[in-house]
Structure formats: structure tokens, C-alpha cells
Amino acid sequence: MSLHLNDVTLTYPDGDGRLTALDRVSMHVPEGSLTAVVGPSGSGKSSLLAVAATLITPDSGTVTVDGTTTAGMSRGALTELRRHKIGIVFQQPNLLPSLTAAEQLQVMAQLDGRSPGKARPRARELLDAVGLADQADRRPHQLSGGQRQRVNIARALVNEPTVLLVDEPTSALDHERGAAVIDLITRLTHRQATATVLVTHDRAHLGAVDRIAEVHDGRLGTPAPAD
Amino acid sequence: MFVAWRDLRFAKGRFALMGTVIVLITLLVGLLSGLTAGLGQQNISAITGLSADRIAFDEPGDGKDLSYSHSTVTRDQWRRWADAPGVTSAEPLGITTTKATAGKASAGVSAFGVQPGSSLAPDSTRIDDHSAVLSTTAAEELGTKKGDTFSVAGHELTVSAVRGEASFSHTPVVYTSLRTWQRIAPPTAEKTDTPTATVVALHTDSGADVQAVDQQAGTRTVSRDDSLSAIGSYTSENGSLQLMRGFLFAISALVIGAFFTVWTIQRSGDVAVLKALGASTGNLLRDALGQAVVLLTGGTLIGTTFAAAVGAAVSGSAVPFALTPATVLVPAAVMIALGALGAGLSIRRITSVDPLTALGSAR
């Protein structure tokens, strides 16, 4: 129940040459722990997240999610792996405008071929966990930025993933709401026992995370416990 | 359909607008179909109602097309067909459009000359050189009933019966004896004598060698349905109306395709998020196509209902509108099928949406 990145290198086409986004990155995130990856814009944080989310296949190296190595898997198999094992919290909440808060979570059951109606109790439970039980029937435009981000977090957890990937969750929030969101992610990581990676350029609010790793020019430093 | 249903409700303004376009196109297609069929019936019902499987025309020669108005068959041609093996019946049929009068009433009619007792006319045992059978419309337009007299091209005849709704080239049919018809039909350009008949209506079996008899008799024989193209007004009129109908079907498919193209582009961000969350492309395509079919079916049903209501309101009036399952349900089914095709082609772009774009700042 963990995430392993082993010697991952990722390059992008850049004119006549190639730009190295990740340079032999290795990382192990155990279950029930939160590792924050920090670094400036363009350092490779989001590429790291995209590789871990199986949205990009690295040039070399392996990604192992809950014991399953993704190398050589078909697109369909990767999609299924994402659906069952990986939760993604997007930088922008990316909620579907036509769905209520509860339905944003129920749709995950539908994507898995299960009845969205039967998923409603689980959706309610998670909305309660993120403090939005009374907002379940509101649509995204009726929620504040912080509330939308909490729905985004709850949606990522609805299929009980073993790996939780969080992309700059505080970038659109003020200081107080940002702190609350990081605190929520930390608590849920420990409660749900997920292997969580949080990428951010903002070092504020990281006091409660388990480890912090810095990334510069595609190279990942050794994760160290947070102060 | 979980997201699709909610999109339909949430973006109801956009979908209502598109639904209205589908309703209006369906209404137009339905009305045009009913009118096409109604006008077609006025043109061809006398031919499609003939008890015959083939029609022999005088060979027009020089690669010319067959024509009911130009064909004239002789007694010799008729006899050759009647004596040919595999031909169970060969009956001469004279057709000419002329004027009929009864008192002060007058009407353009098609005089169909048949042999008394022929299977080509209803109640033909009542037809002789002094009496004729009128179609209902001809009797109505002339204001006559059984036993009344009327004249066709100056020849006085008695109405022996009023039967059927046969119509040819937009004129109601009057069935006369072949001899009466020969007196009223104008001489043809090539032959100055009176014609024997216009065509020979045939019943054939598998033993008939149609090509060989055509060669011997100097005729060209086609099936009864193929002979409809020899009615000049039907070919040009039906061709134009079918072209309009075809264009409407194409326009509807294009409009629906354009709508769903824009709609798919607008929601490509949502599609990327769903893919990133683990939605399979098949699931998303089914959802989008289901949404299109719901919209198409709803709009087409409403449009078809309106078209049927208008058709029911005008049927029986002077407007030739045919309200049948073929004129109501077939265009509706074609609309849905072509619309789904247009939508299907436009939502294909779902397959090319990259889930990576949901991460925004990646790359």
C-alpha cells in the first residue's frame, strides 16, 4: 500500500533537443504518510505528479502503485488503475458544473460501473469528513473557493485509493483557508492510510506533513522529516 | 448517462434551443414527406393500382426515355404480347388527359380506356361505349352520381359507377371503353390515324422472355413501378421534393453535428478531469451519444407529433397530404439516425482529449 518511483527520467521535446523534466528521480511514499514535494515553478513538481498519476509514461524508470508496476500496461489498464488505486486532488477544483457536491462524489461510482444512487451514503460520509455535510446539494457556483477545494479532496478519496496525489491545493486560497486545507489533507492521509504526495511551491502550512522533499531542475532531494 | 442527464437539466437553455431546431426541422421534414407522398398519390395512384406486373411501351428509339404521354401501341404489338408464352394476360390501356363537363361543371380528367370487363378498371363490366366509371374525385368535381350524364371531349357518356380514388398526373381518372378512348384520344405526331392504346398492361410468369418479345413487337417493357418514371410530371415533381427532403436531412445532421462539436469542445475540460479520475473513453462516448439520442428523440417526437397534427387537420382538404406511418415514422427514424451519426462524428473528439490537461500546470 505505497507509492514507489524508481530512477524515473522524463523528457519533453524542446526545439531540436529535449528538456529534462525529471532526472533519475526515486521516491518511496509509505501508506499513511504525507510527503510534500516543494520547489519553484518549472522545477518538475507537476511532472512528478503526472508520472505518479500514470498520466505520463516516463522515458525510463518505474512507477509502482500498491505493488503494481505500471510499465508496459495498456491505456485501459492504467485508467482502471487510476480509478481504483489513485486519488487526484487538482490544483483548480475542476468540479463538473452540472453536479451537486454529493454528485461530484457519486459520479466516481458511475465511472466504475456501480450505481451512483448506492454511493450516496459514502458521498455523504466523505462530505461530512471535509465539513460540507450541509452543502451536499449545492452546485459548484453556489460554493466558496475553499468549499470547492474540499469537495475536490473528498472526490479524490471516494474510491478509497491507496495513493493520493495533491497538486498545489492552496494556490487559489487565502492563508487561513490554505492552512485548513493542508490540515484536512494531513488528517485524511492518516485516517484513510493513503500514501500521499503533495506538490506545492508554497512552504507555508507544511508543519504537519511527515516529510518534505525539494525538487530543483528535475532532481529530487532526499526527503527529510518536517520540522 | 449520470452526467449526461444532469447536463441536460443544467444547461437547459442551450439544449432547449437545439431541441427547438430539431423540432422545427422534423416538422418541416414531416410536412414535406406528407406533401410529397400526397402529391405522388395524385400522380401515380391510377398506375400503382393497376392489376399488372409489367407495362409494355412503344419503343421510343434513339435512346429516348419512356413516356406515357408519347407512347402509342398498335393492335399488332398488343397481339404479339397476348400470344407470347409466359404472358397470362395482356390488356391494352389507353391514357389521355382531357376535359370533362357535366352541366356547368367542368374538370380536367385522365381518360383511361380499357376493354369492357378488363381487370384494369374497377367495376369494368359496367363500362361500354356509352357509359363510364368515375373515380370519386372526378364525380365530385363534375357534381355527378351514378346514372347522370357527362361528356368527355364532346362524347356524351352515362356514369355507370363511382369507384376508388385513382388519379393520374394530378387529374382524377375516368374509365371509358377502349373504343370511346380511341375516339377522344388525339392522333400522335408520327401516326395520323387514331391510336389503338397507350401501353399494354401485362401479367407474366417466369416463362416469359420479355426481351425477346420486346424485340419482336418493337416495344420496351418495364415493371409497373419502374413505369412511374414515364409520368413526366411525377419524375420532375417527385425529384425536386425528394431533393429538398434530402437536403433537410443533411442540414439536420450537420446542425446537430455542429452543436455537439461546440458542446464537446466546451466541456473538453470536464472530459479531461473525468479521464484523469479514471473514466474510460467508452464510458464517456456512451454518455455523450446517449445525451445526443435523448435530445434527438425528444425533439423528433415533438416535431413528428406537430407534423401529424397538421397533416390530420389538412387531410380531406384541397391540400394533397398523405398521413401514413411511412410519411410520419420513416422520416422521424431517418432524422434520429442521421442526427445520431452527426453527433457521433462530432463527439469522436472525446477520444483525443488528454487527461493530462486536467493537471493544468504539468509540462
TrEMBL record, chain A:
<dbReference type="InterPro" id="IPR017871">
    <property type="entry name" value="ABC_transporter-like_CS"/>
</dbReference>
<dbReference type="Pfam" id="PF00005">
    <property type="entry name" value="ABC_tran"/>
</dbReference>
<dbReference type="GO" id="GO:0005886">
    <property type="term" value="C:plasma membrane"/>
</dbReference>
<dbReference type="GO" id="GO:0005524">
    <property type="term" value="F:ATP binding"/>
</dbReference>
<dbReference type="InterPro" id="IPR017911">
    <property type="entry name" value="MacB-like_ATP-bd"/>
</dbReference>
<dbReference type="InterPro" id="IPR015854">
    <property type="entry name" value="ABC_transpr_LolD-like"/>
</dbReference>
<dbReference type="GO" id="GO:0016887">
    <property type="term" value="F:ATP hydrolysis activity"/>
</dbReference>
<dbReference type="InterPro" id="IPR003593">
    <property type="entry name" value="AAA+_ATPase"/>
</dbReference>
<keyword id="KW-0067">ATP-binding</keyword>
<dbReference type="InterPro" id="IPR003439">
    <property type="entry name" value="ABC_transporter-like_ATP-bd"/>
</dbReference>
<keyword id="KW-0547">Nucleotide-binding</keyword>
<dbReference type="GO" id="GO:0022857">
    <property type="term" value="F:transmembrane transporter activity"/>
</dbReference>
<dbReference type="InterPro" id="IPR027417">
    <property type="entry name" value="P-loop_NTPase"/>
</dbReference>
<protein>
    <submittedName>
        <fullName>ABC transporter ATP-binding protein</fullName>
    </submittedName>
</protein>
<feature type="domain" description="ABC transporter">
    <location>
        <begin position="3"/>
        <end position="227"/>
    </location>
</feature>
<keyword id="KW-0813">Transport</keyword>
Automatic annotation (TrEMBL), chain B:
<dbReference type="Pfam" id="PF02687">
    <property type="entry name" value="FtsX"/>
</dbReference>
<protein>
    <submittedName>
        <fullName>ABC transporter permease</fullName>
    </submittedName>
</protein>
<keyword id="KW-0813">Transport</keyword>
<feature type="domain" description="MacB-like periplasmic core">
    <location>
        <begin position="22"/>
        <end position="217"/>
    </location>
</feature>
<keyword id="KW-1133">Transmembrane helix</keyword>
<dbReference type="InterPro" id="IPR025857">
    <property type="entry name" value="MacB_PCD"/>
</dbReference>
<dbReference type="InterPro" id="IPR051125">
    <property type="entry name" value="ABC-4/HrtB_transporter"/>
</dbReference>
<dbReference type="InterPro" id="IPR003838">
    <property type="entry name" value="ABC3_permease_C"/>
</dbReference>
<comment type="similarity">
    <text>Belongs to the ABC-4 integral membrane protein family.</text>
</comment>
<dbReference type="Pfam" id="PF12704">
    <property type="entry name" value="MacB_PCD"/>
</dbReference>
<feature type="transmembrane region" description="Helical">
    <location>
        <begin position="326"/>
        <end position="347"/>
    </location>
</feature>
<feature type="transmembrane region" description="Helical">
    <location>
        <begin position="243"/>
        <end position="265"/>
    </location>
</feature>
<keyword id="KW-1003">Cell membrane</keyword>
<keyword id="KW-0472">Membrane</keyword>
<feature type="domain" description="ABC3 transporter permease C-terminal">
    <location>
        <begin position="247"/>
        <end position="355"/>
    </location>
</feature>
<keyword id="KW-0812">Transmembrane</keyword>
<feature type="transmembrane region" description="Helical">
    <location>
        <begin position="293"/>
        <end position="314"/>
    </location>
</feature>
<dbReference type="GO" id="GO:0005886">
    <property type="term" value="C:plasma membrane"/>
</dbReference>
